[in-house]
Amino acid sequence: MTLQVTRATFDEVMVPNYAPSAIIPVRGEGSRVWDKEGKEYVDFAGGIAVTGLGHCHPTLVNVMREQAGQLWHLSNVMTNEPALRLAKKLTEKTFADRVFFANSGAEANEAAFKLARRYAFDHFGPEKHEIIAFNKSFHGRTLFTVSVGGQAKYKEGFEPTPGGIKHCDYNDIEQLKAIISDKTCAVVIEPIQGEGGVIPGDIEFAQQVRALCDQHNALLVCDEVQSGVGRTGTLFAHEQLGIKPDILTTAKALGNGFPVAAMLATEEAAKSLAVGTHGSTYGGNPMACAVAEAVLDIVDTPEVLGGVQHRHDLFVAGLTAINDKYHVFKDIRGMGLLMGAEVVDQLAGKAGEIIKAGAEEGVFVLVAGPNVLRLAPSLIITDEDIADGLARLEKAIATVVANHPVA
C-alpha cells in the first residue's frame, strides 16, 4: 500500500531548512510539469539549472533503465566502464587531463579547494594556502565551500569556519590585485555568478585573473556547477571568456537531475591527489556516469548548443516586451539560458512575490537574491513553451504590479 502524503507531511517529518511551496509535482515531460491536482506548469526554473534536457528525456530514461539492469554500484575499490567512458569524453572535450567524480557541486568544489591547497603544499610549502573568491559568489553548503563562497549569511551560526580565505568584488581587478600574493594558492571564479544575481564576468577581467594567477603561481578554479554543460551556449562558460582554468567543477545539468558531479584538472595539478588523499563512496558510480555520458552526448552537439542563443533571444525579447508594458525591470542580463531580470527599486524585495504569483499562473521561475528573477530553463525548450510561459509570467507580474504600483 502506498502511503498518502501532502505538503503538511513535510512540516511533520522534514528538517525545517527548506520552505517548499504548496505545489507537489508528480509528473514532468519536456518543459511541462503537473502537480497532484493535475494542474500544468511551464518550467523556466529547470530544477535550478539542472534539467537542461527537460523532464523525462526518452534517451536518458532508456539509458537509466538499461544501466539499472546491469550494475548500480561498486565503490572506488574498482572502476567501471561508464565512469571511464565519461571521463574520457570530458577530457577530450575540455582543457582537462584528469577527472574526479562526486555527487554534488559542493563535493566537486570541496575536492577542487582541497586539491588547490594540496598542490601548493606539494610545490611551495604550507605558507602558500590562501584562497581568494568573490563577494556574492556561491560554491556550496559544506563548511569549506560556504567559507569560500562570498555570502556571509550562509556561514552565520556555523563559525568558526575554515580560515585562509579572502574575498573581493567580482569584476573588480584592482581589488584582486590588492589582495593576491605569493601566499595565494588559488583564485576561484564563477564565469557567471548565479546565486549572486546572475552577473556575467567581464572578458577583460577574467583574462586578467588568469594572468594574475600565472604571475603568483596560483591555480585558477572555475566553478561551473551552474554555468556548465551547455547552459550558456558553449559546453562550458569559461570558453566565452577566453580563459583556460587549471581546475573546473561541474554538476547540476551533468546528470539532468541524477546526482553526479565532476572536478576536472590538468595533469600537473591532478598529481597532488595521490592515492588516499581524497575519495567518495558513490562518486563515479555506474548509474550516474551512464546517465551523464548520455547527457554529454546530447548536449555537445551543434543542434543543442547552437539553439541556446536563439532561445536566449526569445526570452530577452519577451521580457523586454513585458518591461515595456509594466516597467518592472531595471536590467535584463545573463549568458545563454542563465538569465536574470533585476526588479526596479520600487519592487525591491518583491522578486519572491513574482515567483509565487507565477506559480499561481502556472509557470516556475527562480530568484537570485531578493531582487532578481532567474530563468534557467531546458536548453531544448520549445518556442511554444517559451511563449506560453512568458504569457503566464506577464499575468503574474500584472498581479504584483496591481498590488505594488510602479510609478
Give me some keywords for this one.
N2-acetyl-L-ornithine:2-oxoglutarate 5-aminotransferase activity, four-stranded mixed β-sheet, alpha/beta, seven-stranded mixed β-sheet, identical protein binding, Aspartate Aminotransferase, domain 2, 14 helices, Aspartate Aminotransferase, domain 1, PyrdxlP-dep_Trfase_small, pyridoxal phosphate binding, globular, about 400 residues, Aminotrans_3_PPA_site
Explain how this protein is built.
With 407 residues, this protein is an alpha/beta fold. The protein folds into two domains: 7-57 and 302-403, Aspartate Aminotransferase, domain 1 (Alpha-Beta Complex); 71-299, Type I PLP-dependent aspartate aminotransferase-like (Major domain) (Aspartate Aminotransferase, domain 2). The protein is 39% helix and 18% strand. The protein has 14 helices and 17 strands. It has helices spanning 7-13, 46-49, 58-68, 81-93, 105-124, 143-148, 173-179, 203-215, 238-241, 267-270, 286-299, 302-326, 351-361, 383-403, and strands at residues 25-29, 32-35, 40-43, 98-102, 130-134, 165-168, 184-189, 192-193, 199-200, 219-223, 247-250, 261-265, 329-335, 338-343, 363-364, 366-367, 372-375. Strand 1 and strand 2 (32-35) form a beta hairpin. The chain starts with 6 loop residues before the first helix and ends with a helix. The model has no long low-confidence stretch (mean pLDDT 96).
